Amino acid sequence: MRDFSAKDIPKGYPLCFNNECAEKGRCMHYQARLLLPEGCHYGSAVFPTAWQDGTCKCFREKRLVQKAWGFSKLYDNVPQREKAEARHCVRSYFSGGNGPYYRVHHGENMISPKQQEDIMKIVAMFGSTEGIKFDHYVTAWDFEY
Fold first, then answer.
1. Among 31, 39, 90, 107, which residue has the least CB neighbours within 10 Å?
2. Distance of alpha carbon 116 from alpha carbon 61, whole angstroms
């Protein structure tokens, strides 16, 4: 298993300080807090109110996932007359105009397994997704919430 280090933690990721939590050994928020650099005095946190009825509403299992980026083969099975519309629908999925789409296409950002699945569903509306893959995959810690 890949080591978990402070450089993996996204800026602004909420940290948990609940030392009494039964799930702290498996929780991404608590494990990220353990890597908090000396002298850090502020940031995002999971509030104590997240703990309700014996469970944490913010629990996030510490796990590795396959993230992806790159769309150069994504539309290979889409008929030519449908490609522009398919591309438009995938771009719209990112809801921030062209910027987020192109950041994922060029590897500046990676997409989660759920986002990969959602995008494949969009492409499937226009053509077969058989044999279609994203350009690159990497194993990374799952910080989605």
1. 39
2. 20
Q: Global pTM? A: 0.80
- Residues ≥6 apart with Cβ < 8 Å to 86: 75, 78, 122, 123, 125, 126, 127
The predicted model gives 77-106 an average pLDDT of: 92
Instruction: Give 106-126 pLDDT, tens digit per residue.
Output: 999 999 999 999 999 999 999
Is residue 90 within 8 Å of residue 123, measured between CB atoms? yes
* pLDDT at 56 exceeding the cut of 70: yes
Cα three-residue angle 46-61-10, rounded to 5 degrees:
60
Contact indicator for 62, 39 with CB cutoff of 8 Å: no
46, 15 contact by CB (below 8 A): yes
DSSP 3-state of 38: coil
